[in-house]
Specification:
EC number: 4.1.2.4
Helix content: 40-55%
CATH architecture: Alpha-Beta Barrel
Distance between the termini: 25 Å
Strand order of the largest sheet: 1-2-3-4-5-6-7-8
Shape: globular
Number of strands: 8
CATH topology: TIM Barrel
Keywords: Cytoplasm, Lyase, Schiff base
Catalytic activity: 2-deoxy-D-ribose 5-phosphate = D-glyceraldehyde 3-phosphate + acetaldehyde
GO molecular function: deoxyribose-phosphate aldolase activity
Mean pLDDT: 95
Family: Belongs to the DeoC/FbaB aldolase family. DeoC type 1 subfamily.
Length: 227
């Protein structure tokens, strides 16, 4: 890993994130402008704002990520699929769905896999699928099991956290997830990522995408707050 990673190459790792429930239109406008200015991979926003962001980012090369089953993951598969189809119709290019943690912990592994697979099928090749594991609620064994399920179900990425649960992205968890999924899948580090040193350590451990609300401060070498 090149520890001097910076500039456009660094910015391309980021899903510039704004998921606060109180976020208003002017906040989304600012988020999209920052994403275009810095060349972030995507903006990551709540579903209501997907159409607005898609319109503002059209032709920019910046994608639109939205969240499904957020933040608990306990919605029915039917609802998650409906959310996904609606998001795609509004212009989403990447889907971050929350794993059904309760089903995983109940040993209902087939149900968890069906849930992920159904959302992947709803993506229909039109959007990448990232699955949020909420690692702060899981044992290491459960994290590895969840990664294996996501890989079998055809997900494109596994992701650490919603930012609304306990804990966040750690080098240890990124390394565990990378080992579990192998080199074929993406691994997204999110939750409490606030400075450049941490980002570089997470990338060195195997992260291929970073979710952060402090993206601008991070790529400028500063320290931010928030998701």
């Amino acid at each position: 890993m090149n520890q001097e990673l910076g500039g456009a190459a660094l910015a391309a790792y980021f899903d510039h994130t704004l998921l606060k429930p109180e976020s208003a239109e002017q906040d989304i406008v600012k988020l999209c402008a920052e994403a275009k200015e810095h060349g972030f991979a995507t903006v990551c926003i709540n579903p209501y704002w997907v159409a607005e962001a898609s319109r503002r980012l059209q032709g920019s090369g910046v994608g639109v990520t939205t969240v499904i089953g957020f933040p608990l993951g306990a919605n029915s598969t039917f609802v998650k699929v409906a959310e996904t189809r609606d998001a795609l119709a509004s212009g989403a290019t990447e889907i971050d769905m929350v794993l059904n943690v309760g089903a995983l912990k109940s040993g209902r592994l087939d149900a968890v896999e069906r849930d992920v697979r159904a959302v992947k099928e709803a993506c229909g090749g039109r959007a990448l699928l990232k699955v949020i594991l909420e690692v702060g609620l899981l044992t290491d064994e459960e994290k590895a099991t969840a990664c294996a399920i996501c890989k079998r179900a055809g997900a494109d990425y596994v992701k650490t956290s919603t930012g609304f649960g306990p804990g966040g992205a750690t080098v240890k968890d990124i390394a565990l997830m990378r080992e579990a999924v192998g080199p074929e899948m993406g691994v997204k580090a999110s939750g409490g990522v606030r400075d450049l040193e941490t980002v570089r350590a997470l990338i060195a451990a195997g992260a291929t995408r970073i979710g952060a609300s402090a993206s601008v401060k991070i790529v400028n070498g500063g320290t931010g707050e928030g998701y």
